[in-house]
Amino acid sequence: MQHSERIYGMFMCVLQLPSGIDPSSVQAAMSDGVLKVTIPKPAKSMPTKIEVEDASQAEAKKAA
Questions:
Q1: What would the pLDDT profile of 11-59 be if each residue is shown by its tens digit?
Q2: CA 13 to CA 29: how far, in whole Å?
């Protein structure tokens, strides 16, 4: 059994980029019918440290 496909016309595929990716940094190349899309990893965001105070201590500081 032999299977063959024939496609006529234009083919289009749409990919949604992850958040934080610059679209101008994405590269695509086709070689021998294989499409290779290169998407760089986004820069990691540094975690922010939030200090939490006890409400009674905060009021004592304001009163002093």
A1: 777 888 888 888 899 999 989 888 899 999 877 777 888 888 887 766 6
A2: 14
Q: Which residues pair with 6 in a beta bridge?
A: none
Cross-strand partners of 31: 34
Alpha helix (H) ranges present in the chain? Answer: 55-63
Phi, psi of 35, deg, nearest 5: -90, 125
- This model's pTM is above 0.70: no
Q: How long a stretch of residues is the chain?
A: 64
Q: Contact at 8 Å (CB) between 17 and 26?
A: yes
Closest Cα partner for 39 from 64, 18, 9?
18
